[in-house]
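Incident log, support desk, overnight shift.

02:14 A customer reports that sequence design results differ from what the structure should imply. Their input is reproduced verbatim below. On-call engineer (initials T.W.) acknowledged and began investigating.
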């Protein structure tokens, strides 16, 4: 009898171990998605490095006054952006000039930030960490703080097989965690995989979406990753002309990166400056609020004609892009189980 229970216990251990292995965040390519543009050869995915990146992502130690973490502006419950204010906030109660972009499916993008200021994911975190109005810290100081902590020497050694803590490794670890933030389990995805059906309203919204919106918000990622002028008026307080700030070219005036439409349920407010709180406001902008200018996207040269019912139908479709599994995935959340384990070791 004792041997029987021992075998059952061992079997349960195997099952639990397998489950845990499956649940660990890792990178994968969803069915029927294009090939990623990220070069994994230079930073191959390793679950221990991902774990390190997850802990770093939630740690305010990366900021100058130890008050702001990456997650402060990129909350997992809000599709890795924020919803309590239009513009991002930083150390010393500073207020930024843009709404923080939602973080998901980043391996398919070659440029980052609303204006494309960063052209490699491994360098993305460098911008907010060193920006004086965001986290305001230098990587020299970050590395020193990590070295002095009780937690990170062990995590870095587990991740990289030695005790060297550097800015480069910190960035690569953050990058690996962000690469695992894949959202591909919405109702839309189930319908595309023939596991579910749209309602009549959602189906009509999908038809209208493909007619009026899909040229910029291309399936399955629901973005073209291009920079477009979508006809927003310039906020006189922000005076933000988008990509032109980076390229210095007048042809890029008022152009911002086309955001993904996935998880709009969780990622309001919308647009680069968070000016719209509701999807209905976004729809009204595209139907009757587009401002004409020399750099206006060609897709908006002619008015989009939608009646009130059609607007509602498109919104009904957009809501099918909500991915609860992504937003509430405990493997992407604050790493309390890792910190608890470290405290007990």
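02:41 Re-run completed on a clean worker. Output:
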């Amino acid at each position: 009898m004792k041997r029987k229970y021992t075998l059952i216990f061992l079997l349960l251990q195997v099952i639990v171990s397998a489950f845990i292995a499956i649940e660990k965040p890792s990178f994968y390519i969803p069915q029927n998605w294009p090939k990623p543009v990220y070069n994994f050869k230079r930073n191959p995915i390793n679950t221990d490095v991902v774990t390190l990146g997850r802990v770093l992502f939630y740690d305010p130690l990366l900021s100058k006054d130890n008050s702001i973490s990456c997650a402060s502006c990129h909350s997992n419950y809000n599709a890795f952006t924020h919803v309590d204010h239009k513009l991002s906030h930083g150390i010393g109660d500073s207020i930024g000039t843009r709404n923080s972009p939602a973080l998901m499916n980043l391996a398919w993008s070659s440029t980052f930030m609303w204006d494309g200021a960063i052209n490699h994911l491994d360098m993305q975190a460098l911008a907010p960490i060193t920006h004086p109005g965001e986290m305001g810290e230098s990587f020299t100081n970050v590395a020193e703080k990590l070295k002095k902590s009780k937690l990170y020497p062990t995590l870095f050694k587990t991740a990289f097989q030695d005790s060297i803590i550097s800015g480069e490794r910190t960035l690569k670890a953050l990058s690996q965690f962000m690469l695992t933030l894949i959202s591909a389990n919405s109702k839309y995805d189930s319908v595309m995989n023939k596991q579910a059906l749209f309602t009549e309203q959602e189906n009509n919204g999908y038809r209208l979406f493909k007619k009026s919106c899909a040229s910029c918000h291309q399936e399955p990622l629901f973005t073209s990753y291009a920079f477009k002028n979508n006809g927003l008026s310039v906020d006189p307080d922000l005076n933000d002309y988008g990509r032109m700030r980076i390229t210095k070219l007048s042809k890029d005036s008022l152009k911002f990166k086309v955001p993904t439409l996935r998880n709009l349920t969780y990622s309001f407010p919308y647009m680069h400056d968070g000016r719209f709180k509701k999807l209905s406001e976004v729809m009204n902008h595209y139907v009757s609020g587009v401002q004409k200018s020399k750099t206006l996207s060609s897709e908006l040269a002619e008015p989009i004609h939608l009646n009130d019912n059609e607007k509602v139908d498109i919104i009904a479709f957009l809501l099918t892009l909500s991915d609860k599994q992504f937003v509430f995935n405990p493997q992407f959340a604050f790493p309390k189980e890792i910190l608890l384990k470290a405290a007990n070791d």
